[in-house]
Records
---
Amino acid sequence: MAKRPYLSLTQTTAAIHGDEPSRTLIERAYAQLRDDIVEGRLAPCEKLRVEHLKSHYGVGAGTLREAITRLVSDALVEAEGQRGFRVAPIAMEDLEDLTQLRLHIEIEALRQSIRNGGDGWRAQLRSAYEEMSGFEQPIRPEHRRRWEALNTRFHEALLAGAPSAWTLKVLRLLARHGERYRRYAITINLVESGRDVHAEHRQIFELAMDGQEARAALALEAHIRATPDLLQRAWREGRLNLDAAPGLAASA
């Protein structure tokens, strides 16, 4: 009996134990959809019509539905019963709710991190701060995606000395939702507000490195509140429209 090629055997095993290529396609579609929602290319409240969008993302309808279902779990997409799916809306009330929850969790996590973090934590925090600093003096629109990633890394490094892994998991989800609003803050021009994001980060970094727990917590609170306060002011003055996003589904 002729031996079957190894590749054929592995493909058969994959078919029995789970289709790994399909999982990879779902992961890719999920990441692309998530980024398009966060960046506003898929507008708040926009209908996600699977038959229209599957060609845009280059996957089948089943794969796309699986990716969308994962985004429902992330609260970035809402299921509408038998009517399909739509991008989760954004609103000032939602931003305030996110901010209050983030403050409650992140400030306590910073306090614990400063108490428990050792030399390894300080080295990790310094590395994250120095890399981020090169992209925020000032923050340029063309560098925003890179800065967002480095900003997330810095805030996670701040909290890395805290003992709770669940804290970081929850804060990652909150941070992703916060990115939907931060892009508006950069769009309406941070320079107009007189805000110096780099100075805010430097103050938090230096206080944390010095072990000044209470002052670092106050600086972090002011930093977290700054973007929502800026957006609230712009919204009240009519300079901000949270529904202004181009959308992909309609063009598809």
---
Amino acid sequence: MRDGPNSLSFQTAAALKAIYGANAHVKKGDWYLTLDMSAGAPSVQMVIDQQQHALRRRAMSPAFSERALGDAEPLIKAKAAKLCAKLAEMLDGGEDNTWSGRSVDLARLMAYYGYDLISDLAFGRSFELLDHERHRFVPGVLKSASVFLYYVGYLPFAPLVRPLLGTAVQDLFPGQAAKDSLRYTRLANSRLAERIERERTRTGEEREEGEEEEEEERKDIFHHLLRSKDPVTGKPAFSTEELQADTSLLIAAGSDGVALAICALVFYGLQEPEVLGRLSAEIRGAFASPDDIRTPKLHQLPYLDACIDESLRLAPPKPGSLPRVVLPGGTTIDGRFVPGGTTVGVSHYVIHRDGDVFERPHEFVPDRWLVASEEEGEDRERRARQRASFCPFGIGPMNCIGKNVAYLAIKLAVAHLFWRYDFRANGGRLVGGGGGAMEEGRRDEKEYQLWDWIIGFPNGPVVDVKARKI
């Protein structure tokens, strides 16, 4: 469909591959220039030049390798345990196996978990939102900043505005969103500056002669990024501006993507009590205690995997499309010639609800992802079509580099939560769904509502919680 004067939106797996796959005859458009302009350079996810992106990605890959993921697991597990401890605290101890009657805004709590987790993984130092109030402004500021940058990118005079982003002039822009955007940028940059200073101390740049180098307990993401070298020049692979841009990207995309997936799983699961019962039974049957929740056994729970994938299908971290501009000479998408200069994209929300691919596309059906041992050819073909259309973290060479970290963070949080607690909708009402007073397209009470400002932002759910009987 045409969604702008020179913009087309597609919804098929073939279009997904033609637009985002390897060797696609497209490039990122100027809209991406705005998103990281306050850092003075693009993040790895926003860089437009494909060769530069490949080099940046290659330099970042050690930070997201299987080995790095294994090193990160104990930290993620500790954060999941702290999440449950915070939930118990919010319930006034709430360990008496009864419904407390107190409501919990799960979106807010999961945001604390997401930001604490990603900030610690990235910088070796958590924002500690689960512990105290000091940095709890961060989720709200990031949301406001995302709204501002999203719309600025589409302004016809955006090239005139970009040089002002991240400077003191931005404080003069009208509206709180612009001020929050600058506040968030300064926070991210300050966290990076602190991490660079710690790295200098560790590598001995400022140690006195003969002083022993302190043994490093854990290699966070910026340990790898700060030590990456250009294979040709031998110089640091990333400039300070590029590191600042990647800082903002890691905090924003990692934190909110993890929180959104968990909240959507609970929201849709509350409408299907048998789903939550089955998920809880699988988790509780696999682990004797929360201390036992770890890989590889965590990766051997098919229904947990299915529930997470179904959550990501209905509530992808980036609901809309990631726009691309067709290069000169044009290209063919879905059997149609598209001329050069046309903006094209595939909305993750739309393709994930394609009724020709997903049966009962608007319903939460984790079983659609499960493989039966006696699966016939037709079922295999249907499942292959589903996988080809499933893109919560994008596809191709520019997909999300932190995908595996996000999956592990989601799995550990869900496993700990459902091992320890039972959930129900507060007062029998599903907060976070649509409503009759909302705009057209947002009136379905059973659909988890997302607002797409660069990444998806939800509202709720609000739940009642009780500790399980052991």
---
Amino acid sequence: MPDPTGASGEDVAPRSSPTAQPLWHGRFADSPADDLWAYTVSLSYDQRLAPFDIRGCEVHARGLERAGILSADESRTVINALSIVSGEFERGSFAFMASDEDIHTAIERRVTELAGPAGAKLHTGRSRNDQVATAFRLYLRDALSKVAERVIGLQEVLVARANEGGWGTDAVYLPGYTHLQRAQPVLLAHHLGAHAWALARDVDRLLATRVRTNVSPLGAGALAGSSLPLDPEWTAKELGFDAAFDNSLDATADRDFAAEALFVLALIGVHLSRMGEEIVLWSSDEFGFVRLDDRYSTGSSMLPQKKNPDIAELARGRAGRLIGNLAGFLATLKGLPLAYNRDLQEDKEPVFDAVDQILLATTALAGLYSTLEFHADAMRAAADSPASSATDLAEYLVDRGVPFRDAHGIVGELVRRHLDDGANLEELVRQHPKLGATAAALLAPGVAVTRRTTRGGAGHGPVAEQFVRLDERIREDRIRLGSL
């Protein structure tokens, strides 16, 4: 990548050269101070918008031709120059200059060098306010689709591992937890499915956010539109937007789409953090539910025996970074008057970072989960504690006409005696006048998980039905994504 600051090399031009003036130089007698330039330039991070800005420029040039502002020859000249610039970026040979304030001015400056007077007409009827917002929406539209693809990929890994755990009579099961205390046994497939359903909501939010992002601001100008015969609806259609803006002030000031994307990405990060925390626990000796693959874990520089769940820990840790991106940007937006303010330059870095982190995290976690070794025996042993069947004993009494609160008290007292006095819970149940041998059989290993029969529950039948729905949901989401 060429040096974006133009700090060295033959391609550096002083800001006083004819092709190196700021776009707004005519209003000012003096050139910008170096301190101002250093503080305001965004070229160090907005270069990823280059292909999207070039696309917007191409359509704008054709729109200027339709409006009679560019001749057909001028339009071809500008579009050919844009094609050359695109190739330069693809090859990494684009030469930045010291006067390039951002990627948008860099592209226009280079197009003008190549196209001459025709290039100087490219910015007609357009402000950087609507130009930047257009490129940013095009970028984010593409990025949200990429993130959705990765999230669906992680769902598919979870489904595949759930299928391996099974939901038949020999299925793997483990304790379900509340308050991080063992509660009731659940199938491993059910547990993994819970994460997959949370990610399904994330996909839905990503695609919905993409719809609201897909509105064109091109043609809004600086804030009030244009007196020239431009057609924002035509450029919106050509750029693949669903609609054009309705209010030019709103079009240039709106960053709801960026804030919404940051929220959706932060919530994905929260879901990935939950998954990461679980792997940290499960891979510890205290739980022993999983073994990490060597390729998806790290060691210690001092402790030879260590195998550390770094991917899981970073998924947990970077959720805070994603939440910070959202909170910081909302604080930036909260006091801005209409319409555009330079504060809005702060929209890109948090969005770029959030997109990058989620793409990295979903890929790494997909690899981590796909290579985990589940220790089924350890999971079953932890789930087979007699006390984990306490609810089944209470429901057994309910089936025989005992009010639930009374049943809860009866079983709770037996569990207390079992835990405090060391009494055998199975014998206590067998000897109880309202329970007996039939109820005691419910404490046998693996029985409790078979008794969950309601829709969405953790038993064999409901889990099998759940994964039919989950498979269909993933297929539908892939179709939705493919149709965008």
